[in-house]
Structures are given as structure tokens and as C-alpha cells.
């Protein structure tokens, strides 16, 4: 597969595994997994992906720099970013002391009042790297605000954190008292 084909297949996997499993009549299990064979069979019902192979899907999972997907046994799932109703669960972990969240300037007042909430996703997304938070925030604002989350303190007070991939941390909710707004 060419890099462009890999990118297109990765985007399609994201659509199906994160947001629209019903597109192929798939039902995510309690951990967000579906049978890889069922996913491929569903994809083959559409013209563009009618010749997709298991090896091509495995190649995208293996070569993804962001490690968005994982295959365990005969099942596949998106690691994060779900907007489907079924909750995808992870084992809670102790986070680093500090994490970051990039966001649009227009929502900072709402975050001051309510904290960081999952919004249309299942979890709040946080980064261990300032630059990664800036990249994420820039999707919504050319000059994003980078919030500092005192994750170690939040965890000590009962906030659950998860780590589905090396630079990404997830939380159910981060209340304002654990967020530094830089002002």
C-alpha cells in the first residue's frame, strides 16, 4: 500500500471504529473491540474497500505513528476518540504530575466554570507534551490556549486517568481546581 492509501484506510478505520460501527452492522463489545474478520467483511461491501485484506488492516495498525488502533487476538479496536454510546474502558493508571490540554480561546471561560469535560467523546484527552497539546488545540484555533493540568494532584483526589498510547492520557473529567490557565 502507498502512504496515501494507508492514510485513507486509517481514516476509514477511525470513522468505523470510533464513530460509526453501525455502518457495517458492527457492535463494539464492552472494551470497544470487534472481530477483525467482521470489520473486513463489512468493509468489503463497499466499492472503495471491496478488496481490503486483513494484512492491509494489520499494516495500518502496525505502522501508525499515533498508535490509534490495536489488535488483540482476533479483535480490533480504536484506542481512543470514541463518540459511540458504548463506553470503551481502560485500566486506570497513575498519571505524570503534569499533563497538558490545548484548546480554543473561545471555550476557556466555560472550562474555568466547568472544567474539562469529554463533550462529544467518552474521555477528556490530555497530552504529556506541550507541543502535542498545541497541535491538538490548533485544530480549533490558530492561537490555542495550552492548559496545564495538575494530574498527579487530581489523581490523588480521585480523578481516574488512563494511558492508551504513550503521549496520550485520558480522564473522565478534570474539574477547574486542577487546571492552571496561565494567567
Automatic annotation (TrEMBL):
The record's listing under Pfam families reads: PTS_2-RNA (PF01885)
Q: What is this protein called?
A: Probable RNA 2'-phosphotransferase
GO BP terms in the entry: tRNA splicing, via endonucleolytic cleavage and ligation
Indicate whether Transferase appears among the record's keywords. Answer: yes
Q: What does this protein do?
A: Removes the 2'-phosphate from RNA via an intermediate in which the phosphate is ADP-ribosylated by NAD followed by a presumed transesterification to release the RNA and generate ADP-ribose 1''-2''-cyclic phosphate (APPR>P). May function as an ADP-ribosylase.
Q: What is its EC number?
A: 2.7.1.-
One MF annotation (Gene Ontology) recorded for this entry:
NAD+ poly-ADP-ribosyltransferase activity
Determine the domain of life of the protein's source.
Answer: Bacteria
Q: Which residues are in coiled coils?
A: none
- Classification lineage: Bacteria, Bacillati, Armatimonadota, Armatimonadia, Capsulimonadales
Family affiliation:
Belongs to the KptA/TPT1 family.
Entry-linked HAMAP family: KptA
Xref: InterPro entries? Ptrans_KptA/Tpt1 (IPR002745), RNA_2'-PTrans_C (IPR042081), RNA_2'-PTrans_KptA (IPR022928), RNA_2'-PTrans_N (IPR042080)
Under Gene3D superfamilies, the record lists: 3.20.170.30, RNA 2'-phosphotransferase, Tpt1/KptA family, N-terminal domain
What gene does this protein come from?
Answer: kptA
* Alphabetical UniProt keywords: NAD, Transferase
Query: Which SUPFAM superfamilies is this protein grouped with?
Result: ADP-ribosylation (SSF56399)
Which organism does this sequence originate in?
Capsulimonas corticalis
Amino acid at each position: 500500500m502507498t502512504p496515501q492509501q494507508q492514510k485513507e484506510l486509517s481514516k476509514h478505520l477511525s470513522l468505523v471504529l470510533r464513530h460509526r460501527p453501525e455502518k457495517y452492522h458492527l457492535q463494539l463489545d464492552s472494551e470497544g473491540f470487534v472481530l477483525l474478520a467482521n470489520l473486513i467483511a463489512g468493509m468489503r461491501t463497499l466499492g472503495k474497500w471491496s478488496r481490503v485484506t486483513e494484512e492491509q488492516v494489520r499494516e495500518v495498525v502496525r505502522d501508525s505513528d499515533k498508535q490509534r488502533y490495536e489488535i488483540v487476538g482476533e479483535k480490533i479496536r480504536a484506542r481512543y476518540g470514541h463518540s459511540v454510546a458504548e463506553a470503551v474502558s481502560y485500566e486506570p493508571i497513575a498519571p505524570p504530575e503534569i499533563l497538558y490540554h490545548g484548546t480554543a480561546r473561545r471555550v476557556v471561560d466555560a472550562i474555568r466554570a466547568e472544567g474539562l469535560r469529554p463533550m462529544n467523546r467518552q474521555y477528556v484527552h490530555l497530552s504529556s507534551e506541550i507541543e502535542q497539546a498545541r497541535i491538538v488545540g490548533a485544530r480549533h484555533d490558530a492561537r490555542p490556549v495550552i492548559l496545564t493540568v495538575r494530574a498527579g494532584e487530581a489523581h490523588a483526589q480521585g480523578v481516574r486517568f488512563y494511558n492508551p498510547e504513550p503521549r496520550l492520557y485520558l480522564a473522565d473529567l478534570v474539574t477547574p481546581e486542577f487546571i492552571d490557565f496561565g494567567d
